[in-house]
């Protein structure tokens, strides 16, 4: 039963992006044809002239609408989570191949490679955490909201789960558009951007791996009937309470440095909104920890002694640096 559902969800996940892929390939093959009917000629002309609007239109129809309908049918909005790690890869290739694209070839290759590395790392972490299952569960925040909104969740989920993700992902990926909209030679700022992006990927990898190993050890202790360790406070988690969030933020702000060096600094808005939202998510996660009686006391001490995001030295519960 479980294996059948896993296979079905995997097939669905591989099929859902095909409408976008086929539509875009058709656009690339026909946008410069002068022998098309007026409707198609007008459509391809619009797609040619408005690359950002086209990305948003495709996202709206293929992710917001199609993913939402599938989520309603399955009573689970699980699919947006694995695709959160895939959509930026699709967007960077879309921006690089759009007919209006202009860019430095080496910068483009570097950014595409970095985006693939980021995506593979995050995808691996997602499936490792989910025990290599497709759609076994949805994000706990969606589950809590479904209970909160009850019978109204079916339509609220369209905005809360999908429209919001469009604003996040399109906004965060704006530097990928900037890299493929301005053709300037590489500079020292590109090196800075590469270093920041790589630091973000490496920090997030080690933080997520340490968290995964911590959870796995606790699960083994539970199976043996032994007490679990209430708080992870070793490795990167010794220096700050959310090193995984720190790594993710460094990644997105590293992309902003690429865009800023090209004179497209306004693309920072996506990373800024993401940082603000991660601040809110941090509060939600910590509130959830404090609601668990077995962890609440230890986590309060952890809060008093350990920095939230920025790695820093430990403090004593009274506030003195250790």
TrEMBL record:
One family from Pfam that matches here is DUF1295
Q: What is this protein called?
A: Uncharacterized protein
Write out the transmembrane intervals.
12-31, 51-71, 78-96, 153-177, 189-207, 251-281
The domain of life for this entry's organism is Eukaryota
**GO-annotated cellular components:** membrane
Q: Which UniProt keywords apply?
A: Membrane, Transmembrane, Transmembrane helix
Annotated signal peptide: none
InterPro entries in UniProt = UstE-like (IPR010721)
């Amino acid at each position: 039963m479980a294996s059948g559902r896993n296979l079905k969800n995997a097939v669905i996940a591989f099929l859902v992006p095909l409408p976008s892929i086929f539509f875009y390939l058709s656009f690339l093959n026909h946008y410069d044809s002068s022998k098309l009917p007026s409707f198609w000629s007008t459509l391809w002309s619009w797609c040619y002239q408005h690359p950002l609007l086209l990305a948003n239109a495709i996202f709206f129809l293929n992710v917001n609408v199609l993913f939402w309908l599938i989520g309603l049918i399955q009573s689970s909005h699980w699919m947006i989570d694995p695709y959160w790690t895939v959509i930026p890869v699709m967007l960077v290739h879309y921006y690089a191949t759009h007919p209006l694209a202009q860019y430095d070839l080496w910068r483009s290759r570097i950014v595409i490679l970095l985006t693939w590395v980021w995506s593979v790392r995050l995808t691996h972490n997602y499936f490792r955490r989910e025990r290599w299952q497709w759609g076994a569960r949805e994000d706990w925040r969606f589950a809590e909201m479904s209970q909160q909104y009850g019978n109204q969740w079916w339509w609220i989920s369209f905005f809360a789960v999908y429209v919001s993700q469009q604003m996040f992902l399109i906004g965060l990926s704006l530097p990928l558009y900037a890299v493929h909209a301005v053709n300037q030679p590489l500079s020292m700022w590109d090196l800075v951007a590469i270093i920041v992006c790589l630091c973000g990927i490496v920090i997030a990898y080690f933080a997520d791996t340490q968290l995964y190993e911590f959870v796995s050890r606790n699960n083994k202790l539970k199976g043996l009937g032994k007490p679990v360790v209430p708080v992870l406070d070793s490795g990167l988690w010794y220096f700050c309470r959310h090193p995984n969030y720190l790594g993710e933020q460094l990644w997105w702000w590293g992309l902003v440095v690429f865009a800023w060096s090209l004179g497209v600094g306004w693309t920072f808005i996506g990373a800024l909104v993401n940082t603000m939202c991660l601040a809110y998510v941090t509060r939600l996660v910590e509130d959830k920890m404090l609601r668990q009686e077995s962890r609440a006391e230890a986590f309060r001490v952890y809060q008093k002694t350990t920095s939230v995001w920025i790695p820093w030295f430990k403090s004593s519960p009274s506030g003195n640096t250790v």
